[in-house]
Specification:
2 copies of one chain form a homodimer.
Chain A lengths: L11 H8 L3 H8 L7 H14 L5 H8 L4 E6 L4 H15 L5 E6 L7 H12 L3 E4 L7 H9 L3 E6 L9 E4 L1 H15 L4 E5 L5 H15 L10 E3 L4 H12 L7 E4 L2 H13 L9 E6 L12 E4 L2 H13 L14 E3 L2 E3 L13
Parallel strand pairs in A: 1-2, 1-3, 3-4, 4-5, 5-11, 6-7, 6-8, 8-9, 9-10
Antiparallel strand pairs in A: 10-12
Helix pairs in contact in A: 1-2, 1-3, 5-12, 8-9, 10-11
Chain B binds a DNA duplex through helix 2 and helix 4.
DNA sequence: TTTCTTTGTGACACCGGTTACCTATTAATA
DNA sequence: TATTAATAGGTAACCGGTGTCACAAAGAAA
C-alpha cells in the first residue's frame, strides 16, 4: 500500500486557521455542541460552507469508535427481495454520509454469529439492518444489544423490541389471500410455505388458515408442503401437490419466487392458470407482471421497508432512549388481484 | 454520538507489550515489511494468532489514507444484473477485510462525476468496480487515474486500459444469436437494442448484424428499435415491431429484461412462442427459466465477472505496475438454446 | 583491525478528528 | 461590591495505527 498525499484535501485545521479559532471550536460547530458563541458559530459555519469542508469520516470513525457504515444483514434467498430492500435503503441514505455495505450470511453455518459480531467489532458500523430470517434470531440481536450497537429488525411478528423493529402484518396479508380464494369458491386449496426457520412462514400459514376458517374451510395437512422460498423448491412442491390424490384447485405460495415455480409445474402438468389452477403469491415483486397470466399477489412494500428501516437507524441517535418508539410500527399489506385467480372450473358452469 | 468503550478490544500496543518489542515492529509484521528478524517475526506472528488480534481498519484507513471499502458503481437498470454481480464480488471478498459498498449513480445527472469523486475523496475506498454503462465513461475514469485510485471496468469493448479492465466479447455473443436464428431459417428478424449510451448496445447490434451478414441477411432499420434495457421498454418496442407492416418471425433482444417484455407483447398480440415468434435474449439471467417457454439466451457470466473484477482489484497492490496485465482479459460468451426459438412457420411444412 | 554496508529496531511525529480538563470572560446572586 | 455560576474557548492527550529517520549491532570489504 503506497501512501498518497492529496494536497487538495482541506482539514479541520485549515478551517480553524481561517476562522482564527482552535480546531476544537471548529469541532464543536461540526458536532453542534453548545458553548460556542453565536457569532463565532456563524462565522465558522460560513467558512465551512464556502470551502465545502467535510470532516474526514475515517478520522471521525476512529475518534468516535463508530464508522459511517450501515450494514444490510441478510440470508434471504430471494434476489428480488434483496434488490428491493437495497433500493429503499439507498434512497434513505442518499445525501447522507452513510454508506451501505452488504453482509450476506448463512444461519446454517456454526460460526455465523461470530462472523457478524466480528464484523461489528472490527468495522464499528453505525448500524445494522436485519432482514428475515436473520432478523428473527433474537439470540443474535441480544448479543448486539450488549454491545450498544444500533440496529433495526424487519419482522413479521412482534419481537418485543419496538424501538428496533419494523413489523409487517404478514398474517393479515395471508388472510386476504385466503378470503379471496374462498370467495371465488375454492375448497381444495394448497399451500406451499417457506422454511420453518422463517417466522414469516408461520405467520403467513396461520393467517391463511384463519382466513379459510372464516369460510368454514380447513387447511389440509396433505395439501400443505414446505418449500425453501426459492423458485426450484416452488416447482418441486407444486409438482407434489398437483400429483397428489386430491389435486387442489388453488395454491397459495409463501412468496412470489415459489409461486412462479407453481406456474412452471402447472404448465408441465398441462394445467391452465387460472382455469385449472388459481395461484396467489406473496411479496408482489416485479416478476408478477412478467409472467403470464399476471399473478395475484399480496403486496409487501419491501422497498419502503428498507427506506423506513434506514431512516429509523439514522435517527436513532437523535432521540434520547426514553423518547423512542414504544409501540411497534406496523406495516399493513394488501392483496393485488390480477389474472392468476378465478373461480374453479366446477363452479364455472 | 456517544462514545462507547470496549474493554475487550485488543490493540497493537498490547501485542507490542506481550512480545517485548515496539509497536512499530508489530506494525512491520502486520504489513509484511522486510527487515524484521526471523525469530522476532515468528514470535509476534504467534502472539497475533493466539490473541486473534486484527488491526483496526479505521485506524489503518486514517494512516494509509485508504479504507477497506470496495465500491460497486452502477447505473445499470437491470436488477438481475446488479444482483448477480454483487454475488460475485461478495464471493471474492469473503474472508478478506474488504467490504462491499453500493454506489448507484445516474449519468443523466449533471453532477454525477462530482458525486463519485467526492465519495472517493471522502471515503478513500480501496477500489471501485465500474459496471456498464458507467464503466464506459472514460472521462470519469481518467479523473480517477489522476487521483491514483484503483478501479476495474467491465466493458464490452477494449477501452485501451488492460490493467483496469475485464472485457466481454459481446459482439461474438450476439453473432451466435444471429447464426442460430439464420440457421433456423428466419429471414425477417427484429432487434431491440439498448440505449445508445451503452457500448454493449453497439457491440451487440454490430455482432448481430455481422452474424446475419454471414447468411446474406440484413438487419433492416425498420426492424431495429431502441429500448432502455428494461422490461417495460421491451414490451413497448416489441409491440411496435409486431404491429409493423413487416412482422418479424424472430426478435433478438439486447438483454433478458427486454426479451421478457417481448414475451408479454407476443401474448397480447396473440402470438405463440416459438411457433409464431422466436425470441432470443442476452445475459441468461435466472428469469429465462421462470417464464414459458424457457428462453434461448446468450450466456453472460455476470457473476463470474464480478468475482474476477474484485479479485483483480484486491491483487492490484500486489503486483508492481510494470508487471501488470497488458492484454485485456476477454470473457467469451456462448448461446444457450432453449425452447423460445424454432424454425419459422413458413419453413415448418 | 578499521571502515563501510547492511539489517534490525525504536523514538517520535503524524493521519484528522475527538474527549477531558482547564482558563478567562461575562452574567447572576448575595 | 464581592462571590458564584454559567458560558466561551483553548490545550493536551488520545483514537490505533503508520511514515521517517536515527542508531546500534553484525557482516563485508579494505
Amino acid at each position: 500500500m503506497t501512501r498518497q498525499r492529496d494536497k487538495g484535501t482541506i482539514t479541520i485545521n485549515d478551517i480553524a486557521r481561517m476562522s482564527g479559532v482552535s480546531k476544537k471550536t471548529v469541532s464543536r460547530v461540526i458536532n453542534k455542541s453548545p458553548s460556542v458563541g453565536a457569532k463565532t458559530r456563524l462565522l465558522i459555519e460560513n467558512i465551512i460552507k464556502d470551502t465545502g469542508f467535510v470532516p474526514n469520516p475515517q478520522a471521525q470513525a476512529l475518534a468516535f469508535r463508530r464508522s459511517f457504515l450501515i450494514a444490510l444483514v441478510y440470508d434471504n434467498p430471494s434476489p428480488q427481495y434483496i434488490a428491493n430492500i437495497q433500493r429503499g435503503v439507498l434512497k434513505a441514505l442518499e445525501g447522507t454520509r452513510y454508506q451501505l455495505v452488504l453482509r450476506p450470511c448463512d444461519r446454517a453455518e456454526p460460526d455465523y454469529h461470530e462472523n457478524i459480531l466480528s464484523f461489528v467489532r472490527q468495522h464499528n458500523p453505525f448500524g445494522l439492518i436485519f432482514v428475515p430470517s436473520v432478523s428473527e434470531d433474537t439470540a443474535l440481536t441480544q448479543k448486539l444489544k450488549d454491545k450498544n450497537c444500533h440496529f433495526v429488525r424487519l419482522a413479521s411478528l412482534d419481537l418485543g423490541d419496538p424501538a428496533h423493529q419494523i413489523m409487517t402484518a404478514d398474517a393479515e396479508g395471508a388472510k386476504l389471500a385466503a378470503r379471496h380464494l374462498a370467495q371465488l369458491g375454492h375448497t381444495k386449496i394448497g399451500h406451499i410455505h417457506g422454511p420453518e426457520l422463517f417466522q414469516s412462514t408461520h405467520e403467513r400459514r396461520a393467517g391463511f388458515k384463519a382466513g379459510l376458517a372464516e369460510f368454514g374451510l380447513n387447511l389440509e395437512p396433505e395439501l400443505t408442503v414446505e418449500g425453501a422460498y426459492t423458485f426450484n423448491s416452488g416447482v418441486k412442491c407444486a409438482t407434489t401437490l398437483l400429483h397428489g390424490k386430491e389435486r387442489p384447485t388453488a395454491i397459495f405460495a409463501g412468496n412470489d419466487e415459489m409461486a412462479v415455480g407453481v406456474y412452471l409445474a402447472a404448465r408441465k402438468a398441462g394445467l391452465q392458470i387460472p382455469e385449472d389452477l388459481s395461484v396467489v403469491g406473496f411479496d408482489d415483486t416485479p416478476v408478477v407482471s412478467r409472467i403470464w397470466p399476471p399473478m395475484t399477489s399480496v403486496k409487501f412494500p419491501i422497498r419502503d421497508l428498507g427506506f423506513d428501516a434506514a431512516k429509523l437507524l439514522i435517527n436513532s441517535d437523535k432521540l434520547p432512549p426514553n423518547e423512542r418508539r414504544t409501540s411497534p410500527q406496523i406495516v399493513e399489506l394488501n392483496l393485488i388481484i390480477r389474472e392468476s385467480t378465478s373461480a374453479p372450473k366446477s363452479k364455472m358452469l
